[in-house]
Automatic annotation (TrEMBL):
It holds the Pfam family Peptidase_M1. SUPFAM superfamilies: Leukotriene A4 hydrolase N-terminal domain, Metalloproteases ('zincins'), catalytic domain. InterPro entries: Aminopeptidase_N-like_N, Aminopeptidase_N-like_N_sf, PepN_Ig-like_sf, Peptidase_M1, Peptidase_M1_dom, Peptidase_M1_pepN, Peptidase_M1_pepN_C, Peptidase_M1_pepN_C_sf. Residues 29-193 form the Aminopeptidase N-like N-terminal domain. One of its GO terms (biological process) is proteolysis. It comes from Brachymonas denitrificans DSM 15123. This is Aminopeptidase N. Residues 572-897 form the Peptidase M1 alanyl aminopeptidase C-terminal domain.
């Protein structure tokens, strides 16, 4: 489908929100499903909104063929204005109005995968945020909530399963080999939660009885060959249901809860009421095809979509600027769910560290670039571009801060009040904040609610500057906290944020010192939460017998950069050795390594060694510490990567960073050689595969050790370790170990890497999700010989590569441009030429996927020459395309501003 040469898309502003002029109460949809021409009959009842001045009815529609419009059963005059259907002469006073609209659309040509589309012989829908308008004319906005009745008709043999939201009322056969199903969803919902599926699927089913004695049917629908990969998804769903009841008192409100997996999907999954539609990546798993990370991803996404049933569906968003109301809250809930499942304090910390790493890699980076926006954005051109790490992950940190400020019980009270007030409504982030504050009137949150709410309105990552001074005579320690926040697009100056700082003080012997704020009379605590709500504040602790080492921002209690002024390496080493907070212990190692990596990048000459001896000794001590878990050790020894190092620099030379990162990896491999050997031997065998944290940690550590042993072999010419890695690759009983061994061969630049890749392809050529891994591995491999771009180009021609499949595009093209900086940023500009070619090619197929790829250039202005000029040229070439999608146009024009 071709777009008109563009008039630039209008900007939508949050402050322009107006309630709709009409409400839609009921929708009765009938679909005659046909891939090339699907007929949609839409019968609605409407009424005027008495609170809004009288005006014509303007319905949204895109890519529709309009055949008929009837008002109260009669023909009527109408206009088509741009994408809107305008009805000016609706009868006055006689509510409700019966409106009937008949349209057709072409699902088989819908490569954008928004609205109704076909995939692998089935029909699927995706309506968030604005896909429903590609199905029928509608008030396609989240504050218009209706009840839906849906009749589906389709050929029975080709589409044996017919699903929509809610409860099945009726099904049966029709003439000519067709059949039908009628569904009714008793809950009022916005159009973005509508869904239908018609496809040749089979289901894993389970019946449960909830605490209240109600029966529910749970179903996971997949293609027939995939049924053996649905057990984990069903388990995760059962755990989600139990967790939401136990932790938040929120029960399943539907007789039937369905999950459907599809291989063609723009995002991870979608929380349509009672009919969640998932990317296969977040449903299908068995030990031979899925890694530990895949299993964890499934648990958290199944949880996420299920939790949306309350936070998103029962209470939804008034408008799309409030997206974080449902997304930030639901990400927080899925993170808590995963932590609660992980169990032990150490496994919880491993979860938290993983989430913080993700946040810093993606959201902090977003916040320092041209797409920086507040958690509640003020404007957008294309809402699809605002399903971001800021709205999701930073939004989740904001919700976490409520919990930190009011405590777990206070947070539960706030949630209870939120549902008491707003169940069934479409509301705003302010409504959530108010419920939290009102439920906790004596909290720091309630006292400073307006300051706290700046987290929603101000973009940018605040910097928390901390400095401490010890007064030996007075036996006091004074901690001074000061904050600043860099300018972001459209927001040159910021007001102070409310920053909860969870902290402790560590004595010389490594023990926690009791904390008594001067003038405070309560029992001293070993840990407390300080609240900074001004630009600067000082906190003095009494009865401190010796100069302590502060441990600040424990558990990463706020999404800020922490700068510890005047702190020496000894303090970092002390925290790494003794901090009772596992997060800060890990953080100490990261800071030590990062500081030395950054100075190696900035040094006029590349130093012989990146890390000093004391850091290496400390890392070795972590590896040898019997009290620490394998998973934690693996995280500590995961070195800062090229993207993380780049984030610390004002001027980025990607090739220089690549050299330093490579030197860092080689140094750690060699310096800890003995340990890698003994760790590998101690952890290589984890027994029968079970996806749970303890054995997963052992697998992760064994794989890291093997990678280091193969790196050592690369320098010494040893063939034993690559041989062992190849053997392990061949014999692996699970995908985690198989991928680990394959990665070790690639990192070790072994001659066995290529045969292993070929064997991997041959083994898994019928497993789409495994082929995605195969493409991704090759796109992200360490580019020591400068050949990766050529190989990626060649892979575009591979018979298994399809530009129309988002998972494949993300695995090859997006992974290369976003996650392999050393291969992408080439002095000859070939990476940028490739990027521009691919963005332009994808833009004609799927604008959302193209826009995501386009963001690989977000930070081009920080590149050193010659990269910067070449990158600018490539971006301008994309921007010059006249019929560019609104999605990509918004991204590239912001980048060029
Ligand atoms: N609400 C979903 C995310 C989602 C957003 C847009 C989509 O369309 C392309 C699909 C899914 C979630 O948070 O899981
Ligand atoms: Zn979500």
């Amino acid at each position: 489908m071709f777009r008109e040469a563009t008039t630039p898309s209008p900007t939508i502003y949050r402050h322009d929100y107006q309630a709709p002029a009409f409400w839609i109460d009921t929708v009765d949809l009938t679909f005659d499903l046909d891939p090339a021409k699907t007929r949609v009959l839409n019968k609605m009842t409407l009424r005027r909104n008495p609170d809004v001045p009288a005006q014509p009815l303007r319905l949204d529609g895109e890519e529709l063929n309009l055949a008929r419009v009837l008002v109260n059963g009669q023909g009527t005059s109408f206009k088509l204005e741009g994408d809107q259907l305008v009805l000016e002469n609706l009868p006055e006073g006689a509510d409700p109005i019966a409106l009937e609209i008949f349209t057709t659309c072409n699902p088989s040509k819908n490569t954008e995968l928004m609205g109704l589309y076909t995939s692998e012989g089935g029909f699927f829908t995706q309506c968030e945020a604005q896909g429903f308008r590609r199905i029928t004319y509608f008030l396609d906005r989240p504050d218009v909530m209706a009840t839906y009745k849906v009749t589906l008709r389709a050929e029975k043999k080709a589409y044996p399963v017919l699903l929509s939201n809610g409860n099945l009322l009726e099904q049966g056969d029709l003439e000519d080999g067709r059949h039908f199903a009628v569904w009714h969803d008793p809950f009022r919902k916005p159009s973005y939660l509508f869904a239908l599926v018609a496809a040749p699927l089979v289901a894993r089913e389970q019946r449960i009885v909830s605490r209240g004695g109600k029966e529910h049917l749970l179903q996971v629908f997949v293609r027939p060959g995939d049924l053996d990969k649905t057990e984990h998804a069903m388990q995760a769903l059962l755990q989600s249901i139990a967790w939401d009841e136990a932790r938040f008192g929120l029960a399943l409100d539907l007789e039937r809860f369905m999950i459907v997996a599809t291989s063609d999907f723009n995002a991870g999954a979608m929380e349509n009421k009672g009919l969640n539609i998932f990317n296969t990546k977040y449903v299908l798993a068995k030990p031979s095809t899925a890694t530990d990370d895949d299993y964890d991803g499934i648990t958290s996404v199944i949880g996420h979509e299920y939790f949306h049933n309350w936070t998103g569906n029962r209470i939804t968003c008034r408008d799309w600027f409030q997206l974080s109301l449902k997304e930030g809250l639901t990400v927080f809930r899925d993170q808590e769910f995963s932590e609660d499942l992980a169990g032990s304090p150490s496994a919880r910390a491993v979860c938290r560290i993983g989430n913080v790493r993700g946040l810093r890699a993606v959201q902090f980076s977003e916040d320092s670039g041209p797409m920086a926006h507040p958690v509640r954005p003020d404007q957008y051109q294309e809402i699809a571009n605002f399903y971001t790490a800021t709205v999701y992950e930073k939004g989740a940190e904001v919700v976490r801060m409520y919990q930190t400020l009011v405590g777990r019980d206070g947070f539960r009270k706030g949630m209870d009040l939120y549902f008491q007030r707003h169940d069934g409504q479409a509301v705003t982030c302010d409504d959530f904040a108010q419920a939290m504050a009102d439920a906790n009137p004596d909290s720091a949150l309630a006292a400073q609610l307006e300051v706290f709410k700046r987290w929603y309105s101000q973009a940018g990552t605040p910097v928390l500057h901390a400095s401490g001074s010890y007064d030996a005579a007075a036996q006091t320690y004074t901690l001074t906290l000061r904050q600043s926040c860099p300018a972001t697009p459209g927001q040159p100056a910021k007001q102070p944020f409310l920053i909860p700082v969870r902290m402790g003080l560590i004595g010389r012997d490594g023990q926690a010192l009791p904390l008594q704020l001067q003038g405070d009379t309560g029992t001293p605590l070993l840990e407390r939460v300080l609240v900074l709500h001004d630009t600067e504040a000082s906190f003095t602790f009494a009865d401190i017998p010796e100069a302590p080492v502060p441990s600040l921002l424990r558990q990463f209690s706020a999404p800020v950069w922490l700068e510890l002024q005047g702190e020496d390496e000894a303090a970092q080493l002390h925290r790494l050795a003794h901090d009772s907070d596992a997060f800060n212990r890990w953080e100490a190692a990261q800071r030590l390594m990062m500081a030395q990596a950054v100075s190696a990048v900035q040094a006029s000459e590349m130093p012989a060694q990146v890390l000093n001896a004391s850091t290496l000794d400390a890392l070795r001590a972590v590896l040898r510490n019997p009290a620490l878990d394998a998973a934690f050790k693996q995280l500590v020894l995961t070195l800062p990567d090229e993207l993380e190092i780049a984030e610390e620099l004002d001027s980025v030379d990607p090739q220089r960073i690549k050299m330093v990162s490579e030197a860092l990896c080689q140094q750690v491999a060699h310096a800890l050689a003995e340990d890698w050997l003994s760790l590998y031997e101690a952890h290589e065998n984890t027994g029968a595969y079970v996806p749970e944290p303890v054995s997963a940690g052992r697998r992760a550590l064994a794989n890291l050790a093997l990678e280091n042993l193969c790196r050592i072999a690369r320098d010494s010419g040893d063939v034993v370790w690559p041989g062992k890695a190849y053997q392990r690759f061949k014999d692996a009983s699970n995908m985690t170990d198989r991928m680990g061994a394959l990665r070790a061969l690639l990192e070790g630049q072994s001659v066995l890497a290529q045969p292993a890749l070929e064997r991997f392809h041959a083994l898994f050529q019928d497993e789409a999700l495994v082929l995605d891994k195969w493409f991704r591995l090759q796109a992200t491999r360490n580019d020591l010989d400068g050949k990766v771009l050529g190989q990626v180009r060649a892979l575009l021609q591979h018979k298994d590569f399809h530009l129309s499949n988002p998972n494949r595009v993300r695995s090859l093209i997006t992974a290369f441009c976003h996650a392999n900086p050393g291969a992408f940023h080439r002095a000859d500009a070939a990476g940028y030429v490739f990027w521009a070619d691919q963005v332009l090619a994808l833009d004609g197929i799927n604008a959302q996927i193209a826009a995501r790829l386009a963001r690989a250039m977000d930070h081009w202005k920080r590149l050193a020459e010659p990269y910067r000029s070449a990158a600018g040229e490539a971006i301008r070439r994309v921007a010059a395309k006249p019929d560019l999608s609104a999605d990509v146009r918004e991204v590239v024009s912001r980048a060029l501003q």
